């Protein structure tokens, strides 16, 4: 159908369930983050968490919509939106980590570079569509891991648990790419999305720990 991989009813149900659980968990998680914020709330924390929430929800909702549609012009449009939203999610996740974690010239410099790369990638994804997809996967990985250029500083400012979760999230995202490309394997799409959600969960806990630390 229109050149898209067609999944069995069981695969579609599992994938839809993963998305529904992830969206519900994200909404609950955002309430938890708001509850953990210092009072009165600081503008930088509110802004960083708002950007993070928008980025993560954009990725989850666009992915759910794209994978729910089986074909036709709408799926072609949603495919571009879905893949562009991944760039926004990556930069959105960096935002609280750099603002609340690293800060200073180093943190904001890295954040600016990541957002520049993410916005550029999102624009190219929307403009070029499937022609950019192979490059997009490489760009996702490059943007996701470039923060570890500051690994020494990250080790200094994060707790051991937060650092381990940050690394684990990156590994889950990266290994998930293998499942994403294994088109002959049953449930590969659901597995890919499950690993993305697990990686996002790891990074959510890192953000939560940073918010708690900001309370003093």
Automatic annotation (TrEMBL):
<dbReference type="GO" id="GO:0046872">
    <property type="term" value="F:metal ion binding"/>
</dbReference>
<feature type="binding site">
    <location>
        <position position="193"/>
    </location>
    <ligand>
        <name>Zn(2+)</name>
    </ligand>
</feature>
<protein>
    <submittedName>
        <fullName>Hemolysin III family protein</fullName>
    </submittedName>
</protein>
<feature type="transmembrane region" description="Helical">
    <location>
        <begin position="12"/>
        <end position="33"/>
    </location>
</feature>
<feature type="transmembrane region" description="Helical">
    <location>
        <begin position="81"/>
        <end position="102"/>
    </location>
</feature>
<feature type="transmembrane region" description="Helical">
    <location>
        <begin position="135"/>
        <end position="155"/>
    </location>
</feature>
<keyword id="KW-0862">Zinc</keyword>
<dbReference type="GO" id="GO:0016020">
    <property type="term" value="C:membrane"/>
</dbReference>
<keyword id="KW-0479">Metal-binding</keyword>
<feature type="transmembrane region" description="Helical">
    <location>
        <begin position="191"/>
        <end position="211"/>
    </location>
</feature>
<dbReference type="InterPro" id="IPR004254">
    <property type="entry name" value="AdipoR/HlyIII-related"/>
</dbReference>
<keyword id="KW-1133">Transmembrane helix</keyword>
<dbReference type="Pfam" id="PF03006">
    <property type="entry name" value="HlyIII"/>
</dbReference>
<keyword id="KW-0812">Transmembrane</keyword>
<feature type="transmembrane region" description="Helical">
    <location>
        <begin position="45"/>
        <end position="69"/>
    </location>
</feature>
<keyword id="KW-0472">Membrane</keyword>
<feature type="transmembrane region" description="Helical">
    <location>
        <begin position="108"/>
        <end position="128"/>
    </location>
</feature>
<feature type="transmembrane region" description="Helical">
    <location>
        <begin position="161"/>
        <end position="179"/>
    </location>
</feature>
């Amino acid at each position: 159908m229109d050149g898209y991989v067609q999944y069995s009813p069981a695969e579609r149900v599992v994938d839809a369930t993963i998305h529904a659980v992830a969206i519900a968990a994200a909404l609950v998680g955002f309430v938890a983050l708001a509850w953990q914020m210092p009072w009165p709330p600081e503008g930088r924390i509110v802004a960083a968490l708002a950007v993070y929430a928008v980025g993560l929800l954009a990725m989850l909702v666009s992915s759910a919509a794209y994978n729910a549609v089986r074909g036709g012009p709408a799926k072609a449009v949603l495919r571009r939106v879905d893949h562009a939203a991944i760039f926004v999610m990556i930069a959105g996740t960096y935002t609280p980590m750099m603002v609340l974690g690293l800060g200073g010239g180093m943190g904001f410099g890295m954040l600016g570079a990541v957002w520049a790369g993410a916005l550029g990638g999102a624009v190219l994804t929307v403009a070029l569509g499937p022609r950019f997809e192979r490059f997009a996967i490489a760009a996702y990985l490059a943007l996701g891991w470039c923060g570890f250029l500051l690994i020494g500083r990250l080790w200094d400012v994060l707790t051991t648990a937060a650092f381990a979760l940050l690394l684990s999230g990156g590994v889950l995202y990266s290994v998930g790419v293998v499942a994403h490309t294994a088109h002959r394997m049953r449930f590969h799409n659901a597995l890919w999305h499950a690993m993305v959600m697990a990686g996002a969960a790891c990074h959510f806990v890192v953000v939560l720990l940073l918010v708690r630390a900001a309370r003093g």
